[in-house]
Amino acid sequence: MDTMREEKRNAIPAIGYYPQEEISTGTTLIAMEYNGGVVVGTDSRTSAGSFITSRATNKITPITDNLVVCRSGSAADTQAIADIAKYYIETFSMMENENVTIYRATQIFRQFLYNYRDSLSASVLVAGYDDKLGGQLYALPIGGFVTRQRSTASGSGSTFVQGFLDSKWRPDLTLEECKAIVKQAVGLAVFRDGSSGGVVRVATIDKTGTKLELFRPDKPGFPSVAPPKGHLSFPDHIEQSV
Amino acid sequence: MSNFTGITATMNPLAEMAQFKQNMREVAASPEWRTSKLIERQRWNPYSMEGGSTAAISGDNFAIVASDTRMTQNDINILTRDAEKIHVLNDSIILSTSGFYGDVIQLRKVLQSRLHKYRFDYRADMSADLCAELLSRNLYYRRFFPYYTGAMLAGIDENGKGAVFSYDPIGCIERLGYSASGAAEPMIIPFLDCQIGHVTVAEDYEKPPLTIERAISLMKDAFRGAAEREISTGDKIHLVIAEAGKPIVQKFLPLRED
Amino acid sequence: MVSTEVKNVAAHMDMDRGGAFDFSNCIRNQAMCKMGAKAPKLTSTGTTIVAVSYKGGLVMGADSRATAGNIIADKHCEKVHKLTESIYACGAGTAADLDQVTKMLSGNLRLLELNTGRKARVITALRQAKQHLFNYQGYIGAYLLIGGVDPTGPHLYMCSANGTTMAFPFTAQGSGSYAAITILERDFKVDMTKEEAEKLVQRALEAGMHGDNASGNSLNLVIIEPKETVFKGPIVPEFCKRPEPNDLVYKFKTGATKVLKNKTFKYDIIESMDISH
C-alpha cells in the first residue's frame, strides 16, 4: 500500500476517491509468430504506484490448450475479461462441439473490450495455434481494435524494443530463432523500463499445445543486458572508475 | 463522526430547498462515479505536517512544557522517534512548536538570532514577555506566506510568574494558563480544561491547587492518554520544567511506541 | 413531483442492489456535498496483515487497531475473519466493507459445503470475493488476504478492492505492509516449519505495528493445517504495552457535577459488559 495523502486517506469510495493506487501491470509483452506457431515473452512485475505488489506475476493466462492471452493495463480489468472470455470460449466449444479458432476467440475478447471500452483500461495480446491458420497473433489495444500482427510488443516496456523487433523479424523464423529474439527483446525492455522487471516468462504455442518457460535473473538463460559504460564527463584531475 | 457537517442555513428555507432539489437533479443526471474524473496530480505543496503534540501549563512560579518526540510523515509513516519539538531559547524562555518542521526550525533560528542580538545590544537576556511579543511580530511578518506552526512560548516572566503564550500561525497572541497544540490538541485541551480550568465541575466542588507536582503529573497523564488514542503521538514525552529562580530542567519519559 | 423524478432516475441507474447494499442515499449525499456539507469520515483499518505459507500449512495474522482519521477508533478489532473451518481471511481497508464481505463469503461457503458435502476450496472463496468486488468497481473498499488449507494443499491469495487477485507464498497488506514485507523478504524460506512460520509472521506484524502509526495495540494469529486450525491471540508485544501507569487518579467525588434535576428509574441488571479498556 502506498503512503496515503490527505485526500486519499479520507477516501470515500462511493464518491470515487480510492484509498489505494490502482494495481496495474506496467508491463513488457513481446510476441512473435514463427513458421510453426507463436512465441510470447513477458516480464513479471506488478506495481501499485511505486510499490512492487508482486515480482513473479504470470501475465500469460492460458485460455485453452493452444490459446493464451497476455494482459496489460489494470490488473483487475484484464483478469476479469480473461475469466469471462474463457467462460464464453469454453461454452462456445462445448455447444459447437469443436475447438474455437483463434480468430473467433479474439473476436470474443474484442467484443468485451469494445463494449466496455469506457469503463475498462485493458489491452491484451491473443496468441494461439489452430489447424486452419496455424500460429496467430492478435493485438487488442485499449478500445477494442483488433489487428493481426507478425510480431508485436505491448505495455510500457514496448516502446524501447519496437525498432529491435522490426529489425529482427523475417519470414520463416525457426522456433529457436524466434525464442531468442523474444527473450532478448524482453531483456532489453526490462533493462530500460522501470515498471517492468522480475523474471522472464516465455510461452510457446504450436500444434502440440502450450509450453511455459521461466528464466530467473539468478539462473543461467536470463537475457541480461550489460550496462553501457558512462561517459568520462568529469575533469581530468578527478579519478573515475571506468 | 457519523454525520454530515458543515451545512449552514444562509438562505431562506424555501430557496434553500429549491436549491437542494436542483442539486439533486443535477447529481442524479450525472453522478460523480459515472463522470470520468481525471485524478489530478497533487500540486506541489510548500507545507507538510509532521504530526505530534505539545502542551504547556503555567503556574504561580513555574511553567511546564511537554511534547511527544515522534515525527510523522502523512500521519502514517514514522520519520523519527527522537524529534525535538521543544526548544529552550535561554534560561527563562521555552519555545514549543507543532506543525511543519521546516518552519519550526526556521522560526527557532530567527528567534535565536534575535535573542543573540539582544544580548549583544543590551548585555542581558530577553524576558519571556518581550520574546512573546517578538514572536508574534515575526509570525505576522509572514502574514501571506505564514510559518505553518502552532507555536507556544512559555517561561518565567519579568515578575517571576509562570507564563504561557499561545499563537496561531500568523501571530495572534494570547496569554493563557495552559494550552496545547498539534494533533492531540483536541484531546489534551478538554482534559486540561477539566483538571486545571475546572470548567466542568460545580462551583462549590473542592478544587485541588495547581502545584508544580500536580502540573507535572497532569502533563504526563495528558500525553499518556493522548498516546492511547491518537496515532501520531507517542514514543517519548519530552518534559521541560522552568521554575522561578532555578535552572530549566529537561526530562524524557517513555510512551507507547506502536 | 420532483422527488419522484429523482427516484426514477435512481432506480434506472441500478443503484439499489437490495439486501446488504443500498446505494439510494448516494445521490442525496452528493447533493448535500454540493450544498457545502462535509462527508463523514469512514472507519478504515489502517492495518498490518501478514500471511506466510510453510510446509503443509499456512499462518495468517493481523494487528488489531482500527482508525478514523488520526484517532484510534477501536483498539481490539478483529481483522482475522473465519470463512470456513480451514479458510480464513485477513482484511485491510474499510472496516464495514470487510465485515460484510467476509460475512457473505462465510455464508456462501457454508452453503456450498452443505450442498456438496465436501470442504470448500480456497480458490472458491477467492473467486467469489473477486467477482463481488469487481462488480462494485472498487467502491467496496476491501483488501483481503484469503488463505487456507483444502484437499489440494495450502493456498494464499491476495484480493484487492478492484478485483485484482494474485497468489503468493508470503505477503503482507495494509498501511504497515511496507515494514512487514521487509521482514518477510529477508527471512522467508521455502518449506519452513510451523514454529518458524509462526515466528516470522509475528515478527513481520511487529515490524508493521512498530513502524506504522495506523497499526498497533495487539496481534492475532491463526495457524491453519489440514487437521486442525489454531487461533492465537490477542498477543500484546512488549512495545505495545503502556510503559508507565498514570500518576493521578481521575475519579470524581460525588458533587462534582451540579445537580439540576432529579428523576428516578428502577431497573434490574440482566447483563453487564466489560468496558474497562
Automatic annotation (TrEMBL), chain A:
Q: Which Pfam families match?
A: Proteasome
Cell compartment(s), UniProt? Cytoplasm; Nucleus
Q: What is this protein called?
A: Proteasome subunit beta
Family the entry assigns: Belongs to the peptidase T1B family.
Q: How does it assemble?
A: Component of the proteasome complex. The 26S proteasome consists of a 20S proteasome core and two 19S regulatory subunits. The 20S proteasome core is composed of 28 subunits that are arranged in four stacked rings, resulting in a barrel-shaped structure. The two end rings are each formed by seven alpha subunits, and the two central rings are each formed by seven beta subunits. The catalytic chamber with the active sites is on the inside of the barrel.
Q: Name one GO biological process term.
A: proteolysis involved in protein catabolic process
Catalyses:
Cleavage of peptide bonds with very broad specificity
Gene3D superfamilies attached to this UniProt entry = Glutamine Phosphoribosylpyrophosphate, subunit 1, domain 1
State its role: Component of the proteasome, a multicatalytic proteinase complex which is characterized by its ability to cleave peptides with Arg, Phe, Tyr, Leu, and Glu adjacent to the leaving group at neutral or slightly basic pH. The proteasome has an ATP-dependent proteolytic activity.
Active-site residues, as the UniProt record annotates them: T27
Recorded GO cellular component terms are: cytoplasm; nucleus; proteasome core complex, beta-subunit complex
Q: Name one GO molecular function term.
A: threonine-type endopeptidase activity
Against CDD domains, the record matches this protein to:
proteasome_beta_type_6
Automatic annotation (TrEMBL), chain B:
* Keywords carried by this UniProt record: Cytoplasm, Nucleus, Proteasome
The identity of this protein, by name, is Proteasome subunit beta
Q: Which PROSITE patterns does the annotation name?
A: PROTEASOME_BETA_1, PROTEASOME_BETA_2
Instruction: Please name the InterPro entries in this protein's record.
Output: Ntn_hydrolases_N, Proteasome_bsu_CS, Proteasome_sua/b, Proteasome_suB-type
Report the Gene3D superfamilies cross-referenced here. Glutamine Phosphoribosylpyrophosphate, subunit 1, domain 1
- Entries under SUPFAM superfamilies matching the protein: N-terminal nucleophile aminohydrolases (Ntn hydrolases)
Assembly, in brief, is: Component of the proteasome complex.
Q: Please tell me one Gene Ontology term that the record gives under cellular component.
A: cytoplasm
Q: Where in the cell is it found?
A: Cytoplasm; Nucleus
Q: Which family does it belong to?
A: Belongs to the peptidase T1B family.
Q: Which processes are annotated in GO (biological process)?
A: proteolysis involved in protein catabolic process
**Coiled coil regions, renumbered to chain:** none
In which domain of life is the source organism classified? Eukaryota
What Pfam families has UniProt attached to this entry? Proteasome
From TrEMBL, chain C:
> Could you tell me the superkingdom of the organism this chain comes from?
Eukaryota
| Keyword Hydrolase applies | yes
**Tagged with keyword Transferase:** no
GO molecular-function terms, A-Z:
threonine-type endopeptidase activity
Q: Where is the active site?
A: T47
Q: Keyword annotations for this protein?
A: Cytoplasm, Hydrolase, Nucleus, Protease, Proteasome, Threonine protease
Catalytic activity reads: Cleavage of peptide bonds with very broad specificity
Q: What is its main location?
A: cytoplasm
A single GO CC term for this protein reads: proteasome core complex
Q: Where in the cell is it found?
A: Cytoplasm; Nucleus
Biological process according to GO: proteolysis involved in protein catabolic process
| Spans traversing the lipid bilayer | none
Name the Gene3D superfamilies for this protein.
Glutamine Phosphoribosylpyrophosphate, subunit 1, domain 1 (3.60.20.10)
For this chain, the family text in UniProt reads: Belongs to the peptidase T1B family.
Quaternary structure? The 26S proteasome consists of a 20S proteasome core and two 19S regulatory subunits. The 20S proteasome core is composed of 28 subunits that are arranged in four stacked rings, resulting in a barrel-shaped structure. The two end rings are each formed by seven alpha subunits, and the two central rings are each formed by seven beta subunits. The catalytic chamber with the active sites is on the inside of the barrel. Component of the proteasome complex.
**What PANTHER family does the record tag this protein with?**
METALLOPROTEASE TLDD, PROTEASOME SUBUNIT BETA TYPE-7
According to its UniProt entry, what is the function of this protein? Component of the proteasome, a multicatalytic proteinase complex which is characterized by its ability to cleave peptides with Arg, Phe, Tyr, Leu, and Glu adjacent to the leaving group at neutral or slightly basic pH. The proteasome has an ATP-dependent proteolytic activity.
**Annotated protein name in UniProt:** Proteasome subunit beta
**Source organism of the structure:** Caenorhabditis angaria
Q: What is the lineage of its organism?
A: Eukaryota, Metazoa, Ecdysozoa, Nematoda, Chromadorea
